[in-house]
């Protein structure tokens, strides 16, 4: 499982998804449902974009979850959570989560360093740059960039 909010999905996410798809028989890309978090795209919109941009990997499935990630893993017999790491600061937080998940359920966490060309990339940063008219075309799949630009225009 590769969990995240994917608001929106970036080329960095796709790099981790593709590399995970080459390692595992199936990869579940799980979109976080957090009613307390303000997102630009709905869960359904994020799932739709993910399905379209992951079509090249037949062993990737997109789903959503709410609650404890390890409960989802247990319910769907998923034994590994994949987490992309951009920097040492990501590791500090993710290591604590990995240890808690292992303690709670026995689910392992695989840390995958991001491709260095994406080490700075975060969805929140992409949204901020795009909000002010910056070019984010090299950071997102074309479909996602189009939807991001359209959504931001609708909000103005």
TrEMBL record:
> Which Gene Ontology BP terms does the record give?
coenzyme A biosynthetic process
Major location (coarse): cytoplasm
Q: Which domain of life is it from?
A: Bacteria
The terms describing its cellular component in GO are: cytoplasm
Catalytically driven reaction(s): (R)-4'-phosphopantetheine + ATP + H(+) = 3'-dephospho-CoA + diphosphate
Identify the Gene3D superfamilies for this entry. Answer: HUPs (3.40.50.620)
Give the molecular function GO annotations.
Answer: ATP binding; pantetheine-phosphate adenylyltransferase activity
What is any Pfam family matched here? CTP_transf_like
Q: Which residues does the UniProt site feature Transition state stabilizer point to?
A: 13
Tell me which cofactor or cofactors this protein depends on: Mg(2+)
Task: Name the pathway.
Answer: Cofactor biosynthesis; coenzyme A biosynthesis; CoA from (R)-pantothenate: step 4/5
Question: What EC number is given for this enzyme?
Answer: 2.7.7.3
Q: Where is the Cytidyltransferase-like domain?
A: 1-128
Residues where substrate binds: 5, 37, 69, 83
Name the residues that bind ATP. Answer: 5-6, 13, 84-86, 94, 118-124
Q: How does it assemble?
A: Homohexamer.
Q: Which family does it belong to?
A: Belongs to the bacterial CoaD family.
Q: What does this protein do?
A: Reversibly transfers an adenylyl group from ATP to 4'-phosphopantetheine, yielding dephospho-CoA (dPCoA) and pyrophosphate.
Cross-referenced NCBIfam families, in alphabetical order? Answer: coaD_prev_kdtB, cyt_tran_rel
This protein is called: Phosphopantetheine adenylyltransferase
Source organism (scientific name): Goodfellowiella coeruleoviolacea
């Amino acid at each position: 499982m590769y969990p995240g909010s994917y608001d929106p999905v970036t080329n960095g996410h796709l790099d981790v998804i593709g590399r995970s798809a080459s390692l595992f028989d199936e990869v579940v890309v799980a979109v976080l449902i957090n009613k307390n978090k303000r997102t630009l795209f709905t869960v359904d919109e994020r799932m739709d974009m993910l399905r379209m941009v992951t079509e090249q990997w037949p062993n990737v499935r997109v789903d959503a979850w709410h609650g404890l990630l390890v409960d989802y893993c247990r319910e769907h017999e998923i034994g590994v959570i994949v987490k992309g790491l951009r920097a040492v600061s990501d590791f500090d937080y993710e290591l604590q989560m990995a240890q808690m998940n292992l303690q709670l359920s026995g689910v392992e966490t695989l840390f995958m360093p991001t491709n260095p060309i994406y080490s700075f990339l975060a969805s929140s940063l992409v949204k901020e740059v795009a909000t002010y008219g910056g070019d984010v075309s090299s950071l997102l799949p074309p479909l996602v960039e189009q939807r991001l630009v359209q959504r931001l225009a609708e909000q103005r």
